[in-house]
């Protein structure tokens, strides 16, 4: 199975700009560079920091890349994964598909202009507190909201503590109780919104919208002209919400992983 390629071709320069900022905003704990590809590793926590991703044109064949990804990720004790973005060379996705690597987590990258002053929307009962550094309370609360396992909580703390571009860690409160978490990361005119989550009881109350627009406002006040985020194709409610907040898709990507029974 190969991904749908019938959509309008994206602006490759914009894709590279956003991918580069994504790598800065959500750092891996280790990166191996191989001919235009970044093999990012973070003990298996989150796919975007534990997958091979293209950044520059590469001369690697699909078979060569498969061999590198399989060998190096297995050596690190991480499931071999690859992100197929519009920056991947022609034939790469087909090579992985032919070797039995299956598609999962089809994702949209969306942007919204910040030319005008951001209006805070959502619940007026929700208040958003932004911090420059990730407190232990933020890490613990975010891990619980994301329903992370204990080992993921520890890795989350290490990843967010290693972010070096300017960051705002958001906590949403309703009746003085934390109900949501997220972060915004500014980098050369863009603000990326990451790991946005609210507790089950607060979903649909407008607390999430309040957090998102607060982070967009923060990004604009710190020089960002555009906000961006990522959302899974299957998360229809989130995609609809982001659309109402002014976001539109600019490109998509998908991940591939090797089937357990594959001989490759």
UniProtKB/TrEMBL annotation:
GO terms for molecular function: acyltransferase activity, transferring groups other than amino-acyl groups. Gene3D superfamilies: 3.40.630.30. Residues 125-264 form the N-acetyltransferase domain. Keywords: Acyltransferase, Transferase. This is GNAT family N-acetyltransferase. It comes from Phreatobacter aquaticus.
């Amino acid at each position: 199975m190969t991904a749908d390629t019938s959509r309008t071709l994206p602006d490759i320069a914009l894709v590279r700009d956003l991918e580069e900022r994504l790598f800065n905003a959500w750092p891996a704990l280790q990166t191996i560079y191989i001919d235009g590809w970044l093999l990012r590793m973070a003990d298996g926590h989150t796919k975007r920091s534990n997958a091979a991703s293209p950044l520059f044109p590469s001369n690697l064949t699909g078979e060569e890349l498969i061999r590198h990804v399989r060998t190096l990720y297995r050596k690190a004790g991480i499931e071999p994964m690859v992100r197929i973005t519009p920056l991947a060379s022609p034939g790469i996705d087909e090579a992985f598909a032919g070797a039995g690597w299956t598609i999962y987590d089809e994702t949209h990258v969306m942007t919204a202009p910040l030319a005008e002053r951001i209006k805070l929307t959502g619940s007026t009962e929700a208040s958003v507190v932004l911090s420059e550094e990730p407190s232990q309370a933020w890490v613990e609360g975010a891990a619980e909201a994301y329903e992370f396992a204990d080992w993921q909580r520890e890795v989350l703390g290490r990843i967010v503590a290693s972010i070096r571009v300017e960051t705002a860690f958001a906590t949403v409160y309703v009746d003085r109780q934390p109900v949501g978490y997220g972060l915004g990361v500014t980098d050369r005119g863009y603000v990326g919104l990451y790991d946005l989550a609210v507790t089950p009881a607060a979903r649909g109350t407008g607390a999430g919208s309040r957090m998102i627009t607060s982070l967009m406002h923060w990004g604009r006040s710190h020089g960002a002209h555009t906000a961006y985020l990522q959302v899974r194709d299957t998360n229809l409610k989130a995609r609809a919400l982001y659309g109402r907040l002014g976001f539109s898709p600019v490109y998509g990507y998908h991940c591939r992983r090797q089937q357990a029974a594959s001989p490759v």
